[in-house]
Amino acid sequence: MDILKKIQSYREEEEKLKWEGTFSDYLELLKERPYLAQSAHSRVYNMIKSAGIEEENGHHKYKFFEHEIYGLEDSMEKLVEEYFHPAAKRLDVRKRILLLMGPVSGGKSTLVNILKRGLEDFSHTDEGAIFAIKGCPMHEDPLHLIPHHLRADFQDEYGIRIEGNLSPLNMMRLEEEYGGRIEDVLVERIFFSEDKRCGIGTFSPSDPKSQDIADLTGSIDFSTIAEYGSESDPRAYRFDGELNKANRGMMEFQEMLKCDEKFLWHLLSLTQEGNFKAGRFALISADELIVAHTNEAEYRSFIANKKNEALHSRMIVMPVPYNLKVSQEERIYEKMIRQSDIKDVHIAPHTLRVAAMFTILTRLKDSTRGQVDLLKKMRLYDGESVEGFSDVDVEELQREYSDEGMSGIDPRYVINRISSTIIKKEMTSINALDVLRSLKDGLDSHASISKDDKERYLNFISIARKEYDELAKKEVQKAFVYSYEESAVTLMDNYLDNVEAYCNKSKIRDPLTGEELNPDEKLMRSIEEQIGISENAKKAFREEILIRISAYARKGKKFDYHSHERLREAIQKKLFADLKDIVKITTSTKTPDEQQLKKMNEVIATLIDEYGYNSSSANELLRYVGSLLNR
Ligand SMILES: Nc1ncnc2c1ncn2[C@@H]1O[C@H](COP(=O)(O)OP(=O)(O)OP(=O)(O)O)[C@@H](O)[C@H]1O
Ligand SMILES: [Mg+2]
């Protein structure tokens, strides 16, 4: 029921936002809120700005992009500050087509989509509201009604500059429907919607032979010519091309550089003059952001062709490279998995991280600075601290290549490999090793990987694998320390028994066999060495501890694990070193005894409860770490 209520209240909200009035009412609105008359570019910029801007060591982070686009803060900053912002100020870049250039699956379409969806939402806000001449198929800007000779006066009074000519259709309507009385022309608030073809358009070229330019510019509707008597009667024109429909908002031009030239020429005058021409019809003014996207190879061949010079000079190219941060790449995968049909499969911790390491490595370029290998670079880029490197070094590395991130493995490949593995093997859970294996197997069938690249990539897979081995070992050791306190006390008691026997020159009794044994010198030294007690100093250290114990006893206090700081430190270090052996034995034994079994179960429970494994991935991890430690 809740959802129905929500639908109803949404409808009511929508209803409240509607506005309709005469042109003179509209001017009243503009007096108070001149921003309502902003240009398409300015609206896009304000939309981005209104989501918030964070300042981080000299860089701007535009929050508008942060929910969908990860790791590209610098590119987004460039995009906003070198295109959207100046375009909003009516600087010349506004007259250029925005061409996003980046490698496959690097997020170009995602970026265009969030701009579109963002504009739809923004048009529902006060700041982003748009008004248009009512009943106009191109939702023309009402200010076009103001005749040219009065525009300077208007600008003085309202502070708003008007660009563009009243379309022939509205010119005719003004005469016929309103008797030339501009002030009476009806104006309404419009809301962008790609589905309703209002303010947001997409042009996608198909077969150049069959595709009609009308798809882009609209066309004369010959069936109505008889009715209106002439081809140039504006009523005989159908304003239903993408450029018409996207007026006031934005149009995405898909595969622009693959498109037949005749489609592109229209963009020349649109971008430069703010109008376009269709057939035998008058020029049509339009105000819209045009975004296209392409990859580097396509772009290079486009500019290599002299014929394209004019068009090229009317484009502004913004790079959208791959993300180069491991942690952000992980988020990309998480997002893509959430949106996919494999979202219910258990993905063991570190799986996506390890895949991301591999992917990022394929995107990085070897630095000419000797001491930084790709693995270090990968860490530095992700904000980790690496000994011997500072933030300044990181910036220097980032500046070294302008085209870093323009090649390498794309996120879609990784997700495809993960899902195909899951589907093929009917797995309910997947871990880092499964994914690395699958990434490796897939390299053969990856279309755009050369033989040299493949060699390099195989090497990266083994690097990622080694990184995983370390992560896996640490994870298990951490889980073993769950009952750390208990183990520490046991080890300390054992040490103290031996120290006592050593100082008293007596024997200790084996608790199981009852056998009399000499103090275990090896055990004592292995602990003492942890805190650098030399062979010569050991006697003094042991005696000091015994004295401390008797002092405690005299005062009726219990000597425990926390009573002697240095001893505690030694025990702790020893435990961590030993853990390796415990883990090794416990995880690799085929026939665990009761104690080991108990330990295993504890560790598995910790892995599940605290580290996000499920029982099968936890068991796999233990087995794997066992085999690693036994190598
Ligand atoms: N930096 C990124 N942040 C968030 N998601 C990303 C990023 N890069 C890629 N993706 C994800 O990867 C997938 C492919 O991205 P998208 O389709 O936007 O790429 P594209 O550049 O348009 O690719 P193509 O050249 O194949 O058209 C999407 O699911 C997208 O969300
Ligand atoms: Mg795309």
Structural key phrases:
single chain; 631 residues; alpha/beta; five-stranded parallel beta sheet; three-stranded antiparallel beta sheet; 26 helices; binds adenosine-5'-triphosphate; binds magnesium ion
Description of the structure:
This protein is α/β, with parallel strands linked by helices and 631 residues long. Helices cover 52% and strands 10% of the residues. Bound molecules: adenosine-5'-triphosphate and magnesium ion.
Helices and strands, with pairings:
Blueprint: H1 2-17, E1 20-22, H2 23-32, H3 40-50, E2 53-56, E3 59-62, H4 73-88, E4 97-101, H5 108-122, E5 130-133, H6 151-158, H7 168-178, E6 186-190, E7 200-203, H8 214-217, E8 219-220, H9 225-228, E9 237-238, H10 242-245, E10 250-253, H11 261-273, E11 275-276, E12 284-285, E13 289-294, H12 296-304, H13 309-312, E14 315-319, H14 326-338, E15 346-347, H15 351-363, H16 374-381, H17 391-400, H18 411-424, E16 429-430, H19 432-442, H20 451-480, H21 484-503, E17 508-509, E18 516-517, H22 521-528, H23 538-554, H24 565-588, H25 594-611, H26 615-629
Parallel strand pairs: 4-13, 4-14, 7-10, 10-13, 15-16
Antiparallel strand pairs: 1-6, 2-3, 5-6, 8-9, 11-12, 17-18
Helix pairs in contact: 3-4, 14-15, 14-18, 15-19, 15-20, 18-19, 19-20, 20-25, 20-26, 21-23, 21-24, 24-26, 25-26
The structure holds adenosine-5'-triphosphate and magnesium ion.
The site of adenosine-5'-triphosphate has 19 residues, from α5, α14 and α18.
